[in-house]
């Protein structure tokens, strides 16, 4: 990371335009452990949660280094067969959930990273695939390895055909956008009437926030710029012209809890033989099997840390 001064943006709420905020907490980069302190506020008018001020893109892009997890190689290049199976399980669950609503067609994956989900969709041969990815090395990697066209832009700057796609997916992307409402409107314009938008976002209504507070993995400062309580997000999507269909807890319960516990212990400077033994046991296959009923219950009651929301573009409404 370069040593240039951080550039900040003080902006009103993208949901309603208000500048009135309730301060929630200040935190640092728990995932990549890069420098900086970042403030989280809640809009007192519409309820959206955001960083304010947040880093300008010129500074924020430094918090997306090459070893950031969405930039991992595609699953087929994973050397370990067990690791390949583990990673593919999550992508299969995503694809199978999506195909319950739309079995095939034109799919746009926004923030596709290195194409891990696109690779799984490509295997099914049911989809005509396109990606959008602002990281030029990641976008080029997808084009070279998977031969899938990827627009090397941020989503708001990608010029794509309107009313063209059957499905747009945003897997853990919406929270990274500094103008998420405009990006949702852009997605609406690109979808055909009756098309589907799939949003996977941190679940601020879930159990993880209650248990871990500012150490919850879903905050992911400074990369997560906006977080969305479901009640408020439902209203935003309806106003744009989407119909709320369903929510799912697809995957990630085990790893999400792992990260939150790790962040909490690290912040409290707790590192001893007991905690190291705990993580070795927790990350083992037998522990995952034993704990699976607990995670099933949290998923069933939609208390997961990462929630997937399925909405459909209506034909009778449109955004302003």
Search tags:
N-terminal domain of TfIIb, 10 helices, 13 strands, 320 residues, four-stranded antiparallel sheet, seven-stranded mixed sheet, alpha/beta
What does this structure look like?
With 320 residues, the chain is α/β, with parallel strands linked by helices. Helices cover 35% and strands 22% of the residues. The chain is built from ten helices and 13 strands. The protein has helices spanning 57-60, 81-99, 116-124, 136-146, 180-190, 207-212, 230-240, 253-267, 273-282, 285-300; strands spanning 8-9, 21-27, 38-43, 49-51, 54-55, 105-110, 127-132, 150-151, 165-171, 191-202, 226-227, 242-248, 306-313. The protein has a seven-stranded mixed β-sheet with strand order 8-7-6-9-10-13-12, with helices on both faces. The chain is globular and about 55 Å long. The chain starts with 7 loop residues before the first strand and ends in a 7-residue tail after the last strand.
């Amino acid at each position: 990371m370069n040593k240039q001064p951080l550039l900040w943006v003080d902006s009103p709420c993208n949901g309603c335009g208000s500048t009135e905020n309730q301060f929630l907490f200040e935190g640092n980069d728990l995932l990549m452990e890069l420098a900086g302190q970042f403030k989280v506020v809640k809009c007192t008018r519409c309820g959206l949660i955001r960083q304010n001020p947040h880093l300008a893109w010129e500074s924020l892009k430094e918090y997306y280094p090459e070893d950031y997890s969405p930039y991992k190689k595609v699953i087929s290049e994973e050397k370990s067969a067990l690791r390949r199976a583990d990673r593919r399980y999550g992508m299969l669950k995503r694809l199978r959930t999506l195909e319950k609503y739309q079995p095939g067609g034109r799919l746009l994956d926004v923030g596709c990273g290195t194409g891990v989900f696109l690779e799984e969709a490509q295997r099914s041969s049911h989809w005509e695939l396109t990606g959008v990815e602002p990281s030029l090395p990641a976008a080029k990697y997808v084009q070279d390895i998977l031969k899938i066209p990827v627009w090397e832009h941020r989503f708001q700057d990608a010029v794509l055909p309107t009313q063209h796609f059957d499905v747009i997916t945003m897997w853990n992307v919406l929270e990274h956008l500094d103008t998420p409402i405009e990006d949702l409107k852009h997605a609406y314009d690109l979808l055909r009437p009756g098309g589907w938008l799939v949003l996977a976002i941190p679940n601020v209504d879930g159990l993880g926030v209650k248990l871990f507070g500012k150490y919850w993995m879903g905050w992911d400062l400074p990369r997560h710029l906006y977080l969305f309580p479901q009640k408020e997000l439902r209203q935003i999507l309806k106003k744009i012209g989407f119909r709320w269909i369903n929510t799912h807890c697809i995957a990630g319960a085990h790893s999400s809890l792992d990260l939150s516990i790790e962040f909490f212990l690290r912040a409290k400077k707790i590192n001893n033989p007991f905690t190291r033994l705990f993580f070795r046991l927790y990350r083992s296959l037998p522990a995952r099997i034993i704990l699976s009923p607990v995670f099933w219950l949290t998923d069933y009651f939609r208390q997961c840390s990462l929630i997937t929301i399925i909405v459909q573009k209506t034909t009778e409404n449109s955004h302003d």
